[in-house]
Specification:
The protein has helices at 3-17, 21-27, 34-40, 47-57, 61-64, 72-82, 87-101. It is mainly α and 102 residues long. The protein has one domain (3-101): lambda repressor-like DNA-binding domains (434 Repressor (Amino-terminal Domain)), CATH 1.10.260. The two termini are 30 Å apart.
Length: 102
Amino acid sequence: MDSSFIRTRISELRVKKGVSEYKMSLDLGHSKGYIQGISSGKAFPSVPELFYICEYLGVTLQEFFSPEIHDPQLVNELYTLAKDLDAEDLQVLIDTAKRLSK
């Protein structure tokens, strides 16, 4: 992985969240062009800042660096809903997921 992956992943997840570069920059407490600078390759987030970006996007660092997870925000939402289900309901959810993945 390289810096272009990080730039692309931030843009991909930002778009899925439905937020503009401008809004995300301001929400993170930066100047209005901060995210645009990262997206264009003019800037690069520090490690602590990458943690904040992941938190803002609703993903873990592991999910951020797992390109095979296309919608980590939705995966997190499903996990949040599923973690309180009993075993029988979890099995129904698993069976449904298996049927949908075919």
